[in-house]
Amino acid sequence: MSHARKNSLWTPTTPTAAQTPQLLSGKSMMITGGVTGIGRAIVLGYLQHGANVAVNHFGDDKSASQYQTLVEEAASNLQTSKEEIEKRLVEVPGDVGNPETGKKLVDAVVQRWGRLDVVISNAGICEFKEFLEYVLPLDHNFVQVQN
């Protein structure tokens, strides 16, 4: 005979925005590659904990669309309006392989919120091959994106 357990490891619960500690309230951060995967999860987590976030993406139509769904998802998760979320987000499209994009990111954060507390360099290049089969230009691009 099995009994459902409440508030245990077996029945995961998701805290509401009101229950989440606002550990990052008043902090401002920027992230490269923030509209998909790990970057998107980081943005959503930072918003959940009260941070302001500048989100970089490549700048193509697909990435711009993913940014819009990020805004919608954040509003839904935090049970607030898209307009309220947009006060805590700033979109900065561009290729982070270009140093000017990094400058735009920092400028956007400082102009909007007056300070930059956290930088997350998440954008990356991925070529699905065996590790030892990577070609030199990929390694070169990877170093440029991460620096």
Main features:
alpha/beta; 5 helices; 4 strands; globular
Characterize the structure shown.
The chain is α/β, with parallel strands linked by helices and 147 residues long. The protein has a single domain, classed as NAD(P)-binding Rossmann-like Domain (Rossmann fold, 3-Layer(aba) Sandwich), CATH 3.40.50. It has five helices and four strands; from the N terminus they run βαβααβαβα. The chain has helices at residues 37-48, 61-78, 82-88, 99-113, 136-146, and strands at residues 28-31, 52-57, 89-93, 118-120. The chain has a four-stranded parallel sheet, with helices on both faces. The protein is globular, with a radius of gyration of 18 Å.
What's the CATH architecture? 3-Layer(aba) Sandwich
* Helix run count: 5
Shape verdict: globular
**Based on DSSP secondary structure assignment, what is the total number of beta strands?**
4
Number of domains: 1
User: Low-confidence segments, ≥5 residues, pLDDT <50?
Assistant: none
What is the string of SSEs from the N terminus onward?
EHEHHEHEH
> For the residues shown, what is the average pLDDT?
84
- For the record, the CATH class is Alpha Beta
* Rg calc: 18 Å
| Share of residues in strands | 5-15%
Q: What is the end-to-end distance?
A: 57 Å
Biggest pleated sheet: 4 strands, parallel
The CATH homologous superfamily is named NAD(P)-binding Rossmann-like Domain
Portion in helices: 40-55%
Strand order of the largest sheet: 3-2-1-4
CATH topology: Rossmann fold
Secondary structure class reads alpha/beta
Oligomer: single chain
